[in-house]
Write a structure and sequence with these properties.
The chain is of the alpha/beta class. It folds into two domains: about 210 residues, 2-Layer Sandwich (Nucleotidyltransferase, domain 5); about 70 residues. A five-stranded mixed sheet has the order 4-3-2-5-6, sandwiched between helices. A four-stranded antiparallel sheet has the order 9-10-8-11, covered by helices on one side. A two-stranded parallel ribbon has the order 1-7.
């Protein structure tokens, strides 16, 4: 005898109220919607690329995904305007390693080319562009579409302290699970939909969406301090302090560097003078904003 399936939503809700269970729901992309009438909102774009390699100066983008959304002054997502997804056939065949990593084959991209005018039209109204590794994605898309050089950028991976907010790491799939969803990503735009839900998730520590914290961080001016010609034997001290190494291949100094807030700048200079160089130094310093941060121009 045939029986109607159980009310899965009610079952999931009952389980989620128990301290013994945790429920993950399959991510279903949000439908297109507009902010409520009279509600003030700004436009943002979530962006993800797949590429033939890691070198933004030589490797090529083979897939671009974007989701355009509306957000309120308090960082709440109040609408989804549109999505963009496109392949691009590179000048050389995609390697087996890249296919294994991205799932993109030469057959999938064959005959596809980006419509530059369509990309520009899609992104031009955005106040901010957000990627889950903007230090990677921004450098690639700036090379293809100059429009992105003039946009403010935020990074959902590095500009939110996920550990401080109860997460064990910043990997997108893990963050999505923490927000109560799972997805079987196949395309770059799927990861954009996943990131939308991660940024909409209310952080227990603040009671506000993750997007609000990201916007607050992105708006701050930061200072990039370069510890050039620092003693090799003190590299571990720099690493413990949070410095990162740049190998010089991108035209920037071959040096350790760190990004700090204006309030922390004096302490950083004091650290370098007393712990690294043991003398007065005037290290090279760059002032960064959301318009220059993560760019190859910085």
């Amino acid at each position: 005898m045939f029986h109607d399936p159980p009310d899965l939503a009610a079952m999931a809700e009952a389980l989620s109220r128990s301290k013994y269970y945790r429920v993950l729901r399959r991510l279903v992309p949000r439908t297109m919607s507009a902010p409520a009438s009279g509600q003030e909102a700004k436009v943002g774009i979530l962006l993800d690329t797949e590429t033939t390699g890691l070198d933004h100066a030589r490797d090529e983008i083979i897939e671009l995904g974007m989701v355009k959304f509306d957000y309120s002054a308090d960082g709440r997502i109040v609408g989804v305007r549109d999505t963009f997804s496109a392949f691009n056939e590179p000048s050389a065949p995609i390697s087996a390693e890249v296919t294994a990593l991205t799932g993109i084959t030469n057959e999938m991209v064959a005959g596809h080319k980006f419509d530059d005018a369509a990309v520009t039209a899609f992104a031009e109204s955005a106040v901010i562009t957000i990627a889950h590794n903007s230090a990677f994605d921004r450098r690639f898309v700036e090379r293809y579409w100059p429009l992105f050089e003039h946009k403010a950028w935020g990074c959902s991976m590095s500009e939110i302290d996920w550990r401080e907010n109860g997460f064990a790491g910043a990997q997108l799939g893990y963050l999505l699970n923490g927000a109560g969803f799972f997805h079987q990503a196949h395309r770059a735009v799927d990861d954009c939909h996943a990131l939308l839900e991660v940024l909409a998730f209310e952080l227990p520590s603040t009671g506000a969406p993750a997007l609000a914290l990201l916007l607050e961080t992105a708006r701050r001016k930061t200072l990039r301090v370069w510890a050039e010609q620092s003693p090799f034997e003190l590299k571990d001290s720099l690493k413990r302090r949070g410095y990162r190494w740049n190998d010089g291949s991108d035209g920037r100094p071959k040096s350790w560097y760190i990004d700090v807030t204006e309030a922390a700048f004096a302490d950083e200079i004091a650290f370098l003078r007393t712990e690294i160089y043991t003398r007065d130094v005037e290290p090279a310093v760059q002032r960064l904003t959301a318009f220059t941060r993560f760019s190859s121009r910085a």
